[in-house]
């Protein structure tokens, strides 16, 4: 899990989202002039998920900023060996549009127009063959009443829909399994490093140790065989125990 080379080059659809939690105290109670509060306050899980295999491709923990979004997508690009996914979807977080072009974009130098003045320099444009779409949720009294997809650039692949539902389901599971992510609890993280470590532990262990019901396959007799995201992605051939995942070296030599 610590080496991008272990990931298959088959990921074509990526969903990204951010999940809120906090460390030490709520952001509104933090004093920016107090050194002890610098590693406290709002802490977001930036997660990228392979929608087909449910594999957590990359996780970045920290404040909700464009820099963290860039780290997330830069990690995704490394995991995919530099490949460009055919479809990337997110919520309407404004930072993603520019970050996607910065990470995956192609350098283009406009041709000379022959007119007076300095010629236009090279610029980044959205990559060919990639579609970026967002999900717009309409709420009434804090309840979602409709969901609309909005294509930012590119064209949706045939038969595809823009959504983040495959990622929002693991977000709910993570809040259930990781007590420090509860919205109203005394079990919140007290240290930033512990919070980040536990986030990686719960999200990445799901890849190998948590069988997903909708990924199960049936044999000729109709018997179901459970599969984890890692099995669906071709990274494992069985459901790992947690002990097996913890004790297996991240990098094989």
Short description:
The chain is α+β, with helices and mostly antiparallel strands. The protein has helices at 66-79, 95-104, 165-177, 192-209, 229-232, 242-247, and strands at 13-23, 41-50, 55-62, 87-90, 106-108, 123-125, 131-140, 143-153, 212-218, 224-227.
Structure description:
The chain has 253 residues and is α+β, with helices and mostly antiparallel strands. The strands form 3 sheets. Strands 3-2-1-4-7-8 form a 6-stranded mixed β-sheet, with helices on both faces. α1 runs parallel beside α2. The protein is globular.
Could you report the average pLDDT, rounded to the nearest whole number? 86
Order of helices and strands: EEEHEHEEEEHHEEHH
Strand content: 25-35%
**Shape verdict:** globular
Determine the N-to-C terminus distance. 14 Å
Number of strands: 10
**Uncertain stretches:** none
Number of helices: 6
Which structural class fits the helix and strand makeup?
A: alpha+beta
Largest sheet: 6 strands, mixed
Q: What share of residues is helical?
A: 25-40%
Strand order of the largest sheet: 3-2-1-4-7-8
Radius of gyration: 21 Å
Q: Features of this protein?
A:
alpha+beta, 10 strands, two-stranded antiparallel ribbon, six-stranded mixed beta sheet, 28% strand, 253 residues
Walk me through the topology.
Layout: E1 13-23, E2 41-50, E3 55-62, H1 66-79, E4 87-90, H2 95-104, E5 106-108, E6 123-125, E7 131-140, E8 143-153, H3 165-177, H4 192-209, E9 212-218, E10 224-227, H5 229-232, H6 242-247
Parallel strand pairs: 1-4, 4-7
Antiparallel strand pairs: 1-2, 2-3, 5-6, 7-8, 9-10
């Amino acid at each position: 899990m610590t080496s991008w080379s272990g990931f298959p080059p088959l990921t074509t659809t990526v969903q990204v989202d951010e999940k809120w939690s906090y460390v030490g105290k709520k952001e509104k109670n933090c004093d920016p002039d107090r050194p002890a509060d610098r590693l406290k306050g709002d802490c977001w899980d930036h997660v990228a998920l392979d929608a087909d295999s449910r594999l957590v491709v990359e996780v970045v923990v920290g404040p909700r900023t464009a820099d963290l979004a860039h780290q997330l997508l830069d990690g995704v690009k490394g995991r995919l060996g530099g490949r460009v996914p055919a479809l990337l979807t997110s919520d309407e977080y404004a930072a993603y549009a520019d970050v996607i072009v910065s990470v995956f974009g192609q350098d283009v130098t406009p041709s000379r127009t022959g007119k007076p003045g300095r010629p236009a320099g090279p610029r980044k444009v959205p990559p060919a063959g990639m579609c970026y779409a967002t999900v717009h949720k309409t709420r009434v009294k804090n309840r979602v009443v409709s969901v609309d997809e909005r294509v930012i650039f590119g064209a949706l692949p045939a038969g595809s829909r823009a959504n983040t539902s495959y990622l929002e389901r693991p977000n709910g599971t993570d809040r259930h399994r990781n007590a420090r992510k509860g919205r109203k609890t005394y079990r919140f993280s007290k240290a930033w490093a512990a919070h980040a470590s536990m986030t990686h532990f719960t999200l990445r262990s799901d890849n190998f140790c948590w069988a997903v019901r909708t990924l199960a396959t049936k044999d000729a007799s109709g018997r179901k065989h459970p599969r984890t995201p890692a099995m669906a992605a071709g990274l494992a051939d069985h459901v790992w125990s947690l002990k097996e995942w913890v004790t297996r070296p991240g990098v094989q030599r």
